[in-house]
């Protein structure tokens, strides 16, 4: 962990700006270095979702409970949750399977002014222990979990969640109608162009990520969350093909 008091170096995302050999997208050191710029310019509404995670956490966090950010990357959601937790006896845990992400996340946690301790785990979220949860966040994480393992993960989260607790689930989705899908994809690409990405960057990033990020329909997400053990599923945010849901466990 850095003792310099300076944030980690951040760079402009130019990873796909030149022709490159096709390969699957990985959350390695090169992605970690440009990740804040990449996600801000790639995910519509990300800068709205993060502060709202703080608001939602504050509303649903329970005294003496655990809070989890699964797939915490550089810790944006973790820090939002941290600032939304008013109870000093709560435990906040961030989990990511990328060493490069966790290393940089440690810097941001150390520079933050909240006194609430944060435990960071570099491990697979499918294997991490979950207990006594009141708020859990999967912020654009589930889409990278193999589809056949998603029900298993959500069921474990629901079983670990206290009555009155919630899961914040943000995802890129696909649409039932091909025409709707084409419209939303075109709008998303225009969003990227407006943020300075070239057609080459958009095309190469899409090719790299399409076998790694597997989107599903909104209905599929809602039905799975209820099968997993959540009682209500609300859509609290949507922009183009990006949504954030609140899954509530009443009992």
TrEMBL record:
Signal peptide: none
UniProt domain Methyltransferase: residue ranges: 69-165
UniProt keyword list: S-adenosyl-L-methionine, Transferase
Keyword Cell division among UniProt keywords: no
Top-level taxon in the UniProt lineage: Bacteria
EC numbers for this chain: 2.1.3.-
Gene3D superfamilies, per the entry: Vaccinia Virus protein VP39
Residues noted as binding S-adenosyl-L-methionine in the record, renumbered to the chain: 46, 71-73, 96-97, 124-125, 139, 206
Short name of one Pfam family: Methyltransf_25
Reaction(s) catalysed (UniProt annotation): prephenate + S-adenosyl-L-methionine = carboxy-S-adenosyl-L-methionine + 3-phenylpyruvate + H2O
Family annotation (InterPro entries): CmoA, Methyltransf_25, SAM-dependent_MTases_sf
Family as reported in the entry's similarity comment: Belongs to the class I-like SAM-binding methyltransferase superfamily. Cx-SAM synthase family.
Subunit structure: Homodimer.
Biological role: Catalyzes the conversion of S-adenosyl-L-methionine (SAM) to carboxy-S-adenosyl-L-methionine (Cx-SAM).
Protein name: Carboxy-S-adenosyl-L-methionine synthase
Organism: Marinobacter qingdaonensis
């Amino acid at each position: 962990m850095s003792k310099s008091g300076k944030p980690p170096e951040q760079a402009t995302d130019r990873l796909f700006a030149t022709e490159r050999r096709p390969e699957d997208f990985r959350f390695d050191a090169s992605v970690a270095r440009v990740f804040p710029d990449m996600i801000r310019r790639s995910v519509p509404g990300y800068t709205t979702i993060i502060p709202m995670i703080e608001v939602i956490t504050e509303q649903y966090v329970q005294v003496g409970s655990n809070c989890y950010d699964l797939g915490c990357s550089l810790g944006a959601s973790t820090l939002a949750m941290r600032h939304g937790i008013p109870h000093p006896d709560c435990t906040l845990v961030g989990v990511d399977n990328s060493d490069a992400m966790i290393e940089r996340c440690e810097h941001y946690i150390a520079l933050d002014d909240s006194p609430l301790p944060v435990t960071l785990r570099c491990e697979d979220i499918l294997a991490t222990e979950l207990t006594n949860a009141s708020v859990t966040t999967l912020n654009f994480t589930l889409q990278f979990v193999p589809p056949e393992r998603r029900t298993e993960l959500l069921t474990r989260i629901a079983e670990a969640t206290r009555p009155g607790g919630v899961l914040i689930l943000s995802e890129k989705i696909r649409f039932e109608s091909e025409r709707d899908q084409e419209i939303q994809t075109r709008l998303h690409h225009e969003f990227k162009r407006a943020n300075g990405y070239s057609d080459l960057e958009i095309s190469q990033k899409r090719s790299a990520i399409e076998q790694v990020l597997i989107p599903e329909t909104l209905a599929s997400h809602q039905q799975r969350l209820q099968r997993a053990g959540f009682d209500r599923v609300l859509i609290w945010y949507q922009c183009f093909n990006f949504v954030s849901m609140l899954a509530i466990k009443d009992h």
